[in-house]
User: Fold this.
Amino acid sequence: MATYYIATTGDDSTGDGSSALPWLTISKAYTESSGSDTIYIKDGTYDWITQTFEKSLYIKAVNDGSVIFDGGGTTRPWINNNNSIFIEITGIEFKNGATTGGWSFKWHKNDSDYYCKFTNCIFHDLYSISGVENDGGIWTVNAGGYFYFDSCLFYDLHCVDNTANNSWAGIITGRGSNTEFSSCSLYFNESGLNSFKYLTVSQNVATVCILKNTIIQNDGDAIARISGGTAGYTITPTYTCQNGNWTTNSCETGTGNITTDPLFVDTTLANFELQLDSPCVSSGTLL
Amino acid sequence: MATTKLNRQEYALVPGLGTQQDITKFITIVNQGEMAYATDTNEFFIFNGSQWQKIPFVLVSDSSNPDMGKIQTSSRIGLGTDYITDKSLLNCYIGSNTLTDNGAIRVNVENDPDTLEIYLRGAWNTIIYDFTTAYGDLRHVPVSEQIKVWSGDSVSLGLNGQPIIYEYKSSMGANPPPQVINLGSF
Assistant:
């Protein structure tokens, strides 16, 4: 299992993928890598352009929180397009997804051997767009796949329209997938829409979504739905805070769940640290 | 006994005799349930209709002298009606246990997660096994996260670089609260 590097100062032509001579783009690193290799990304902001993944990879920021993939609002996302692989992404911020034409982030494949794990990642300013079925800012769907989000932050996921079908959402976890949010914060603040979904489970196939040690807050005046779909779904929050303007609140019951304001420090400045007197402090479970 | 003299009638006796190799290669002239004794390995075989299968015991010498004490049933093969001795357990697992004698072991599936327990001093005690060592540090792994024993902080960090478990407590959300230094009062 080889290790490769990319950097904003790298060069796809003269580089060799080493730390001393890194490449510039994720696409070059992807082309040169083999299954189960690790791609390290050095500090900096990179263009978030379409990349299709069809082999197992570890993609890691050298320094968590210092790597940004910026779509500029016009680009297409990373896409998984193969079965029986895993992809683990650590420490990367993704922002400014496509505002027209469809999903902003898309991981989908119908294979129980497939899993994708995000750790210490940030997703913000992603859009669900009207007119595209299964639309969503982040789309992690399809039968049998497993999706894990550990210590990830989601905010400013915009739902542009909620009128066309049953799957408009900031995040879609559906079609038989198994998704788990552990120690994540999801903050939404939308207005002008009614009963749209930000976190939805299930479309056509029964789906499981687990929330643990997680905060979900809808701070906007638009009523949001945490779940829905045409097939059965199971959404299981434990030690989770769901607060704000929701059609239903899954945290009114269940072990360790609360519905009170999580008291983020300052959401207007995207500071989602907890205030010291937050009801979420020391209210989680050992994972 | 020569191999050529082996036949169904001899094997029909209980037991038939032959070397292990002789026995196991004769499969067409015997019927299901017939028994044979391997003179070279001191093992018993039973024919199951298609092949010889070995009875999983070997014979050992028994003493001509009586045992001490009243009970005369101690076994030279290490297996008695109520004991096993001098054996290694391989590819085995511990299940439930209703006995409450010192040293009894059980897996208690009524706990979540299951616990391995030993009965000592009149009570079932959990056997602590969720520990590991790394980088000279003792770490507790209660479920999936490694926790530094001396600080109670997890090895895994949240988005803000704080441990997701702090002094054996966990908070909700991606940003664990900052650690507070309590200087006490003056």
Q: What stands out?
A: DSSP finds two helices and twelve strands in chain B. Helices of chain B lie at 8-12, 20-25.
